[in-house]
Amino acid sequence: MLLRNFKKSNMINAFYLARALKTFRPHHQFLCRGYSTHIATGNTACEDHEPSFLKSVEMYFDKAAGISGVSQKTLSHMKAPDCMLKVTFPIEIKDKVEIITGFRVHHSRHMLPVKGGIRFATDVDEQEVTALAALMTYKCAIVDVPFGGAKGGISIDPKNYTDAEVERITRRYTVELCQKSFIGPGTDVPAPDVGTGAREMAWIMDTYRQFHPNEVDSIGCVTGKPIPLGGVRGRNESTGLGVYYGIREFVSYPEVQKHTGLSGDIKDLRIIIQGFGKVGYWAAKFFEQNGAKIIGIGEKECGVYNPNGLNIDKLFNYRRSRGSFLGMPNVDIIEDPLEILELECDVLIPAALERQIGLRNADKIKAKIVGEAANGPTTPLANEVLLMKGILIIPDLLLNAGGVTVSYFEWLKNLSHMRFGRMTKKWDELGKSQIVELVERNVARKLSETEKKQVVHGANETDLVYSGLEDTMISACSETRRTAISKDIDYRTAAFVNAIEKVAAVYEGSGIMFMN
Ligand code: NAD
User: What family is this protein classified in (predicted)?
Assistant: First the structure.
């Protein structure tokens, strides 16, 4: 059934590709809402005339919008970003004043708070942050997280600054967000993204609390915090774990097995991952733990490859101590960082940055499945090439939604001021021990201590977060699959259709004020 769908949709894709190629000639490159076409420095995956990241998200949106049953009025309202903040502020660094530029974009405030990460990278600009904010709107809808979409960033390479300087920049950016009401547990709740982590989130929270000393829920102004500062167990690994759950779900579908020839057993998968940061590392760890073979990892300096499988923690420790994979024993070093994407494997997981698969390398991709852990790794034209080659794409807005799902759990924990499981763990264990005793008496057999421990164990915070995330990913994958089959469309378009319809239900249900 799905195979037939692919053949049919390939014909549509061929048409779409031809039309897209025609539309995106170089002289059309400045069409995207006044932003110039964004080509990441040194990115050789994309042709110059390929659309910017923001334009790409809009193209994916438009393709799905036409298939959804949503009115044009609502669609145009949904597509346009609600508000944008651009700030510049001075920071004194080594006796010199540097002007730092930061952004925060609220793409859709149909639900509050809005949610989205904060990125520290030199490529951060208005169009990139807007594209990422739009993806957050649709991502939250797909996993039924009741938030609007946002994103922020500062255009710096944090590696060029000392820790103390990064702290000053982060705190100063937060002051700007506080002054302009672009942060708060009920309005806008940032999280980590590229170049930021728990440390930066702690600084953001601490700065916010200086401005709101009496706000009882102030700790919920940001997620991805360290555990002692109100973070939730499982947030660190959540995006990578969600990537694992999502790919596991798709390979379990019979139509996917038929199309790819894969068995559905994780142990049979050979996986390549591009990007060995927070998302890539954890995705690799969970696949390794479950028996898959990670045969390649790509980083910005080079890639490492071993067809017999790589040891993830050895790689991580090596790179952490030396700053690079170069010189790593028992692996092949792939010098061109983009080449790792072109090696043969079952599942290719881009987990670094946007626009890594473009027109220049799409036809060289040999994976059976591309699982998009990064945001926007595939350009729309490359997307069509991959589909025409019969490669299944599990799209970013679905596959990497584990991060925002667990951020939602952290926010709920912060509002309830209590660790998950605190009130129920012991009670559950007591109830279960009574059942075990009853069963033991009736069947006249005693369970071993290990068996008893397994049965009686009450859920702690990690158990609850993992199971909530797993359930969320299973539902979101199955909803996407259902739409793909019923409408005879690819998974990305299906995910967008579902998201658009869910966001539209909120817009239309609440009415539109001051439109006329
Ligand atoms: P990170 O900064 O922790 O890791 C990114 C890694 O990619 C770094 O190790 C970096 O060196 C590497 N990299 C950069 N350029 C590269 C290149 N050209 N080739 C190979 N590797 C390269 O960031 P992260 O949080 O892991 O985010 C990665 C992606 O996942 C981003 O697209 C981000 O938006 C997306 N994402 C992150 C989260 C999250 O919870 N952190 C959630 C959803 C989506």
Answer: Belongs to the Glu/Leu/Phe/Val dehydrogenases family.
* Residue 456: Cβ-neighbour burial (10 angstroms; 0-12, 13-18, 19+): middle
| Ligand 1 probe mutation, 118, 239, 336, 378, most atoms within 8 A of CB | 239
Q: Does ligand 1 have an atom closer than 6 angstroms to the CB of 468?
A: no
Q: Is the peptide bond before 113 cis (omega within 30 degrees of 0)?
A: yes
Mean pLDDT of 129-158: 98
Decide: 81 in ligand 1 pocket, CB within 6 A.
Answer: no
User: How many Cβ atoms are within 10 Å of 120's Cβ, its own excluded?
Assistant: 26
Taking only the tens place, the pLDDT of each residue in 306-334 is: 999 999 999 999 999 999 999 999 999 99
Nearest one of 159, 172, 248 to 207, comparing CA atoms: 172
Distance, CA of 353 to CA of 373 (rounded, Å): 9
Q: Which atom of ligand 1 is nearest to the CA of 338?
A: 19
CB 97 within 8 A of CB 91: yes
Query: Measured from the CB, is residue 274 less than 6 Å from ligand 1?
Result: yes
Catalytic residue among 139, 151, 285, 368: 151
Residue nearest ligand 1's atom 15 by CA: 300
Q: Which two tokens stand for residue 165?
A: 């300087």
Query: Coil, strand, or helix at residue 369?
Result: strand
Average the pLDDT over 475-495 and give the result: 98
Residue 514: burial class (beta carbons within 10 Å; 0-12, 13-18, 19+): exposed
